[in-house]
Amino acid sequence: MAPKKKTKKTAEKIPEKENELEEKYRHSILDIAILQDHIADLRRHVRGMEQKLQHERQDHRDLSRQYKTMQTKLTNKVKKLEQELSQLKEDLLSQEELSKEKRERKQVEQEKDAVIANLQHKLDNMESDYEKVLHETLDSLSSQLSVARQGWEDESTTLHQKYKELLSEFGLNALDI
C-alpha cells in the first residue's frame, strides 16, 4: 500500500493549533507579567506603610524627648525656686515676713503641682492619641494585607484551574508535570 497523503484540511488544522497555542502562551506570559507588577506594587505599598510606621515611632520618641526636656527644665526651675525660697527664709528676721514667705511658697507649690498635673494630662493624651494612630495604622495595614492575600489566593486558584484545564485540553495530566 502506498502511504496516505495528508489532506488540505489536516494540513490547515496543524498551523491553527500551533497559532492557538502560541497565542495562549503569549497571553499566559502577559498574565504573569501583570501579576508580577501587581505584586511589586503591593510590596512598594507595604514598604511605604513600614516607613510611615517608622516615622510615627520616631515622632513618638521625639515627643518623649521633648517631654523629658520640659520636665528637666521644670525640675530645675522648681529647684531654683526652692533655693530662692530657702534663701529668703534665712534672710527673714521677723515672724510677719516669715509667714508671708510661707504663703508664697505654698502658692508656688500649688502652681508647680498644677503645671505637673497639666503636663501629665497632656502626656497621657499624647500617649493615647499615639496608640490610637498606631492601632488604626496597624489595623488598616492588616486589613489591606488580608484583602491582598485573598485576592492573590483567588487569582492563584483561578490561574491554576485555567492552566489545569488547558493541560487537560492537550491531553496532559497536571499532576504528571
TrEMBL record:
Cytoplasm recorded as keyword: yes
Intracellular or extracellular location(s): Cytoplasm, Cytoskeleton, Flagellum axoneme
Residue ranges of coiled coil: 32-136
Broad class of where this protein is predominantly found: cytoplasm
Keywords for this protein: Cell projection, Cilium, Coiled coil, Cytoplasm, Cytoskeleton, Flagellum
Subunit composition and interactions: Component of the nexin-dynein regulatory complex (N-DRC).
Function: Component of the nexin-dynein regulatory complex (N-DRC), a key regulator of ciliary/flagellar motility which maintains the alignment and integrity of the distal axoneme and regulates microtubule sliding in motile axonemes.
PANTHER family: COILED-COIL DOMAIN-CONTAINING PROTEIN 153 (PTHR28656)
Family: Belongs to the DRC12 family.
Protein name in UniProt: Dynein regulatory complex protein 12
Protein's organism: Amphilophus citrinellus (Midas cichlid)
